[in-house]
Amino acid sequence: MNAVERREEIIRLITTSDEPISGNALSKRLAVSRQVIVQDIALLKASGYDILSTNKGYVLSDKAASCTRVFKVWHTNEQTEDELKTIVDIGGTVVDVFVWHRVYGKIEAKLNISSRRNVQQCIEGLVSGKSTALMNITSGYHYHTVRADSEETLNLIEKALEEKKYLAPEI
């Protein structure tokens, strides 16, 4: 398999998979190093493919869900699961989480959480003790970029977050 065929296969695998595909899985499947996969992904992005790198692997961006909004939220660690389920149950995808740190500036993590299963995987990672939620470095305040199929869906998400008192006051 040459480089062009390999990149075509990467796109095929990412497009047909229901789950993100890790770089390690791609490298094993295509019998190349992880570094070659990283280079191939960079070339594919440069040629116009909207490939997202998530903590679970690579995914192709969903062009149908083109509306996005950033929500500033605040809640406890125990409420994280409910917050994420609220968003995905209404039809949103939690694209990322970020905080504004007074010293380091913007600190961001890609999430791409779009289902209850994704929520559960995220929560399991946080409660395992291996990592802590990013919001903990800013006293619970953080932001989510949320993608949905329409402004109406984003409005419903905003209303639900407001009703649950997760929306932080804008100052």
Topology of this structure?
Layout: H1 3-16, H2 23-30, H3 34-46, E1 51-54, E2 57-60, E3 67-74, H4 80-90, E4 93-101, E5 105-113, H5 116-127, E6 141-148, H6 151-163
Antiparallel strand pairs: 1-2, 3-6, 4-5, 4-6
Helix pairs in contact: 2-3, 4-5, 4-6
How is this structure best described in words?
The structure is a single chain. The protein is α+β, with helices and mostly antiparallel strands. The protein has six helices and six strands, in the order αααβββαββαβα. It has helices at 3-16, 23-30, 34-46, 80-90, 116-127, 151-163; strands at 51-54, 57-60, 67-74, 93-101, 105-113, 141-148. The strands form two sheets. A four-stranded antiparallel sheet has the order 3-6-4-5. Strands 1-2 form a two-stranded antiparallel sheet. Helix 2 packs across helix 3 (34-46).
- Secondary-structure element order, N to C: HHHEEEHEEHEH
The number of strands is 6
Largest sheet: 4 strands, antiparallel
Strand content: 15-25%
**Overall mean confidence score, pLDDT:** 88
Low-confidence stretches: none
Strands of the widest sheet, in order across it, are: 3-6-4-5
- What structural category arises from helix and sheet content? alpha+beta
At a glance:
The protein has 171 residues and is of the alpha+beta class.
Provide tags for this entry.
4-stranded antiparallel sheet, alpha+beta, 6 helices, 171 residues, two-stranded antiparallel ribbon
